[in-house]
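Readers of this paper often ask what the protein records in our data store actually look like. Below, we set out a record of this kind in full and without editing:
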Amino acid sequence: MAKVHVTRAKGASRLAVLVGGGPAPGINGVISALTLEARNRGHRVLGIYDGFQWLMAGDAAHVKELDHDDVSRIHFQGGSILNTSRANPTKKPEDLDRVLATLGDLKVRYLVTIGGDDTMFAASQLAKRAKGQIRFCHVPKTIDNDLPLPGEIPTFGFETAREVGFELVHNLMEDSRTMNRWYFVVVMGRSAGHLALGIAKASGATLAVIPEEFPKAIHLQTVCDILEGAIIKRQALWKRQDGVAVIAEGLLERIPAEEMQGIEGARIRHDDYGHLRLAEVDLAFILKSQVERRFGERGAPITIVHKTIGYEVRSAQPLAFDCEYVRTLGYGAVEFLLNPGPEAERLDGALVCPENGKLKYFHFATLLDPETGKTRVRRVDVTTPSYRIAREYMIRLEREDFHNKKRLATLARAASSKKKVFSPEQFHSKFHYLVTDLRGGV
């Protein structure tokens, strides 16, 4: 990307926009909507490339003044015309100061940040440090759907990501049936299982496993037991050798690091915000290897194919839902910054969100976790009817499997082979804890 000279008109203040974190369908629609609306109101708009990366370095050259022709048709496109990065200005006070100073050099009076929890946290810290010299509006973006928006309002990009993931899993389900084999499909979602559960529920996958099922730490052995139990139950009661398990990658955040040591496919690295780089740990391969080994050791080998769905959905072309949604968000960001009402005018920074057909602005402080000081995370509520309905259609070991003696004996026979025989008591001893000690099995 060539450096672009920005004409600095005397006395002019500008609205700028940048994108942080990973891609999500709809980013360009936000950029388009806010640029067109701000220009309609007589303001110039600067697009800042690569998130906070260059601002942190005091570099004011990696920007572009956006006009109508730059943005009028980009809302159909995936990705981000301004790129994005995970550069974190909150690690050092001097980085925050350089960001603010560089924005000042560019005569930026208003900044729109598009991103997830980390980018929102960065915006909140900048707003606090700017003391009103620059006003901030954050547009919530993440395919993980884990920002604390009110009610069931999704973050933009989630619906498109779910649709693309649904199509992929649907195809895998047909291949699974045709080839008599299992698929273990790991789906992106760092802290929450919304995307994995949404894809699994919509597609009718055999089962989903998400971190919210577990009240505390998650053990690798437990995840393998859930998957092994599902395979055995499907073989025993439906005489089927195929299935698709959709697994949230966020399980990795809560599996003790020592359990991953020495396992092939487990490369442990962290990003600038201190998060485990989940995409570099091949959870699907790890689970496939562990479960295949279990069946092989019993003399009953099975075929499992591992697949990770993530990068395929992040830069997809947005659905009509997200195209419409982000136009509202882009307009709302401009309204907050340039024409705030009495309540919004008192805020130096806020997150924009539609609620009950109206634009709402939530002060950053109300979105931070008082214990961690970081952005609160919205997780799947496993007590809701939506989750319970999803569980009803999964094939997993449940309480009744152990209370019904005939069914327990059938499961034990299905788990047995010439090499290793399971009695009903042994099957109970190995798997019963899954329906008593875990929240999701209660």
About this structure: Residues 158-179 form the longest helix (22 residues). The chain has 17 helices and eleven strands. The mean pLDDT is 92. Residues 300 and 417 are 6 Å apart (CA to CA).
